[in-house]
Amino acid sequence: MSRTVYVNGAYLPEEEATVSIFDRGFLMADGVYEVTSVLGGKLIDFAGHAVRLARSLNELDMQAPCTNDELLAIHRELVTRNDLIDGMIYLQVTRGNPGDRDFAFPDPATTKPTLVLFTQSKPGMADSPLAQTGIKVISIEDIRWGRRDIKTVQLLYPSMGKMMAKKAGVDDAWLVEDGHVTEGTSNNAYIVKNGRIITRQLSSDILHGITRAAVLRFATEAQMEVEERPFTIAEAQEADEAFITSASAFVMPVVEIDGAVLGNGTPGPVAKRLREIYLEESRKTAI
Ligand code: PMP
Predict the structure, then answer these.
(1) Judging by DSSP bridges, how do beta strands 250-257 and 260-261 pair with one another?
(2) Mean pLDDT of the chain
(3) Residue 240: pLDDT above 70?
(4) Which residue spans of the chain are classified as CATH 3.30.470.10?
(5) What is the pLDDT of residue 218?
(6) Three-point CA angle 80, 81, 85, nearest 5°
(7) pLDDT surpassing 80 at residue 1
């Protein structure tokens, strides 16, 4: 069945939704995005995603397409129109269609941003069987640009990284720069040693994950120790546990890194506990 999607003020069947070939999102990857999870028909951490979207837009001198209240209303309308129970809402804002191709940014007075949202249904996504087995990762060099804190639609290298992982017979790749892990292709990366949770500190080297912020807050509230610093692949291979976080994977255990099996090769207690707490608390505050 066809989805109802949102494009620049209109709710349309997906087959009828179009964006110009001159759109700067298409020509220049001049756009930013957010992915908000939906569990039980409710939005998880919408406020966090709205704040990060505003920051991404601001860093790129891009206009906001509408207010946060309007964005929330669109998200909710899409959930309703598509009977979405569990899944995601993808949102993209681009610098719009200036009617021609030019490197210089168009005048925002005459070129309005493009706003697109659509739903992706994933029934039972919180009960992913992968969370029971854990995932395997390889490491690859991080050759992305230097503003990874801005959530742009420039996802070619992360996409290539996923393909390298697939080719190697594993689930994902961790990106390594100057000998230290930055993050996963589409998630933040963590290790656990002697009960202490270690993850890279925020900077322009990584995306400031909305799930990361929530998980670290819950970990601290649960009296777990958190250390924000870079770590190497060798350190990760010697860790007791590892995991990743993202809006769509929540907390996902990692059981193998570049062929080295962590612990007994099954999800560790810290990752399992954090996944439980995250899902429980997020459902409570979902809107
Ligand atoms: N890092 C990168 C590179 C990502 O693409 C994502 C997911 N979009 C994340 C981290 C996790 O961020 P979030 O928890 O907000 O989904």
Answers:
(1) antiparallel
(2) 97
(3) yes
(4) 4-123
(5) 97
(6) 50
(7) no
224 lines ligand 1 (CB under 6 A): no
What is the atom index within ligand 1 of the atom nearest the CA of 247? 16
- Measured from the CB, is residue 247 less than 6 Å from ligand 1? yes
The pTM score is: 0.97
Domain 130-285 CATH (choose: 3.30.460.80, 3.20.10.10, 3.60.10.10, 3.40.50.720): 3.20.10.10
- DSSP letters, 196-220, are EEEEPPPSTTS---HHHHHHHHHHH
* Pocket flag, ligand 1, residue 36 (CB < 6 Å): no
Active-site hit among 151, 166, 167, 193: 151
What number does the ligand 1 atom closest to the CA of 206 have?
A: 1
Residue 151 is a catalytic residue: yes
**Beta carbon of 209 within 6 Å of any ligand 1 atom:** yes
Rounded distance from Cα 74 to ligand 1 centre (Å)? 22
Please tell me if the CB atom of residue 183 comes closer than 6 angstroms to any atom of ligand 1.
yes
Say which residues have a Cβ less than 8 Å from residue 272's Cβ, sequence separation at least 6.
253
4-123 adopts what CATH topology? D-amino Acid Aminotransferase; Chain A, domain 1 (3.30.470)
**pLDDT band with cut points at 50, 70 and 90 for residue 101:** very high
